[in-house]
Amino acid sequence: MTLYETTLTEFKRKGDEEKVRWLEGLNKRITLSQKKRIQENDTKIMQELFTPKWVSWELMYSWATKGLQTKNCILCNKKDSLGMDFKGKFLCANCFIEIKHK
Ligand SMILES: [Zn+2]
After folding, report:
1. Is 54 found in the same domain as 13?
2. Which residues surround ligand 1, an ion (CB under 5 A)?
3. Residue 54 and residue 79 in one domain
4. Is 46 in the same domain as 90?
5. Is there a contact between 83 and 92 (Cβ–Cβ < 8 Å)?
6. Mean pLDDT over residues 55-73, rounded?
């Protein structure tokens, strides 16, 4: 389970409906471009999001990256979610940029 799921489950168990609603409503509250910045590990965005005090960066990051598939890059062998499929193989964003500039 991700941190997001664990936290959500915990609040549900405690019956903390306000926090449950807040977490479940994130998709509506946060724009796609903001979500992308979270995925890119841009912690500065926290100041723009007006998140409640109990919301940590790790929690937001966990939410934004949930459902993102991580795959093994065929070149550097690292797991990444940002990148592209190339002839059925996965290339991470870093390797893709490197290849393009060769
Ligand atoms: Zn790579």
Report:
1. yes
2. 73, 75-76, 92, 95
3. no
4. no
5. yes
6. 88
Q: Which residue is it, tokens 């940002």?
A: 82
**What's the whole-model pTM score?**
0.68
Q: How far is the CA of 94 from the centre of ligand 1 (A)?
A: 6
* pLDDT reading at 76 higher than 80: yes
Over residues 73-84, the mean pLDDT reads 84
On whether the CB atoms of residues 54 and 64 are closer than 8 A, the answer is no
* Distance from Cα 101 to the centre of ligand 1, integer Å: 14
Which range marks the domain in which residue 20 is found?
3-65
76 and 39, same domain (yes or no): no
What total number of domains does the chain contain?
Answer: 2
pLDDT tens-digit readout, 7-61: 999 999 999 999 999 999 999 999 999 999 999 899 999 999 989 999 999 999 9
Tokens representing 18?
Answer: 């306000």
Q: Distance (Å, rounded) from C-alpha 60 to C-alpha 56?
A: 6
**Both 55 and 96 in a single domain?**
no
